[in-house]
Write a structure and sequence with these properties.
77% helix
Length: 75
Amino acid sequence: DAGDGPAVFVILIVGAIVAGGALYVEFTYQPPYWVHAVIWLPTIAILTIALLRLAKSLLLVLQYKHRAGEGRLAE
């Protein structure tokens, strides 16, 4: 079970990319707000879907490879 781990990393990575890109575009070109919406909303959706699939599959493969299991108290 991958849990919420991949989602957290994807949110932070995509958020940093989009925030940095939006600030760069705003201060360099100063477009209207609708241009930001046209650029960044599809970018958020595409990056999130692509990276979430990749991150979740990577975490599942690593758990399988290292035989990760539930935590247990020492007996």
